[in-house]
Amino acid sequence: MQSLTETQKKLLEVGKREFLEKGFKNASLRDIVKKAGFTLGAFYGYYTNKEALFCALVEKPAQELLNYYFSILQKFKELSIVEQINHLGDASQEGMDWTIEHIYDNFDAFKLILCCSSGTEYENYIDKIVEIETASTYSFIDMIKSTGDSYLHIDEDLVHILSNAMFSGLFEIVVHDMPKVRATQYVYTLHEFFVAGWQKILRL
């Protein structure tokens, strides 16, 4: 991976401050370049537009989280249905632990995604995760039904609502700038709540 130039580092530093303060839509590219001490020509030597600068600040941690999430889902999917039922809470706990560490290692990037990304490809970041979680959960429900509980019926809209509630709740730690210790306690409680809730709904 090619290292960043001093010009890029300065543009990213100033751009991050501007985006955090004003949001993507209201941040001025001219102001960013001026405050960084460069010309627009110098900027365009590295980034095609304002959104490219924003993406450079968030794309790596955002994709790393998605990649890890996919890996957790894949590992869970490879278990037998009995193992999936018995380890439902364990799998999600492992994911929560990693996610907390990753978020706090890249806090500003996730702050940008969650609070400042309107107008960019990242404004629907949570929605994408929720869609994946909804599909995965409904697949799990179908597996349970295939084992003999054919009367189990959970509306897909409810699965979506609960998935959205879980991930929106998780990312509140960033929206509200929670200290890591408090955030960890909060996420553990949130995890217990949703695991218990799903076990009740799914009759596990």
Automatic annotation (TrEMBL):
InterPro entries: Homeodomain-like_sf, HTH-type_Tx_Regulator, HTH_TetR. Residues 28-47 bind DNA. Keywords: DNA-binding. This is TetR/AcrR family transcriptional regulator. It comes from Clostridium brassicae. Residues 5-65 form the HTH tetR-type domain. Pfam families: TetR_N. It comes from the Bacteria.
